[in-house]
Amino acid sequence: IIRTQELLDHETKAHYWLTVYASDRGVVSLSAFVEVYIEVQDVNDNAPQTSEPVYYPSVMENSPKDVSIIQIEAVDPDAKASDKLSYKITSGNPQGFFGINGRTGTTPAPGTHRKEKITPALSVAAQHPHPTPPTIPTSRLWIIFH
């Protein structure tokens, strides 16, 4: 039986080639060997990371509704997880003036609201739909109105 002696991490090393050697204890020892390929399967053990911890986009005051302000970009170090990320605004939007496309991370402008009414700091989270363990790192988004 081949057993692990340490924790394995897919992001560090995705596979191993082992050579197993077997020999008998005869007077004239006979032996054989076999190659064993072990694939380390990836699990969702890393939190997504946004390209910046804080974003500083700007938008004109009284911009029309649905003008794109910024696209938040994130990657997940886990294999094939980045294409499954979702985005949501987690705080700083009590008036509901801002929205974010949950699949693309695009934030449209709030419409024709005056800057004096808007809280310009939002927290945005990028997350995998089924994190293990649950982790939701956030980025801060400061929107400057001109």
List key phrases describing it:
single chain; 146 residues; mainly beta; 0% helix; rod-shaped
What is the gist of this entry?
The chain has strands spanning 15-23, 31-39, 49-50, 54-55, 58-59, 65-71, 74-75, 86-91, 106-110, 121-127, 138-142, 144-145. The chain is mostly beta strands and 146 residues long.
Q: What's the number of helices?
A: 0
Describe the global form: rod-shaped
Return the average pLDDT rounded to an integer: 79
Distance between the termini: 67 Å
Number of strands: 12
* CA-based gyration radius: 25 Å
How do the helices and strands follow one another from N- to C-terminus? Answer: EEEEEEEEEEEE
Largest sheet, spatial ordering of strands = 4-11-10-8
Range of helix content: under 10%
Structural features, described:
The chain has no helices and twelve strands. It is mostly beta strands and 146 residues long. The model has no long low-confidence stretch (mean pLDDT 79). Helices cover 0% and strands 40% of the residues. The protein is rod-shaped, with a radius of gyration of 25 Å. The chain has strands at residues 15-23, 31-39, 49-50, 54-55, 58-59, 65-71, 74-75, 86-91, 106-110, 121-127, 138-142, 144-145. Strands 4-11-10-8 form a four-stranded mixed sheet, with no helix packed on it.
Secondary structure: elements and pairs:
Blueprint: E1 15-23, E2 31-39, E3 49-50, E4 54-55, E5 58-59, E6 65-71, E7 74-75, E8 86-91, E9 106-110, E10 121-127, E11 138-142, E12 144-145
Parallel strand pairs: 4-11, 5-12
Antiparallel strand pairs: 1-2, 3-7, 6-9, 8-10, 10-11
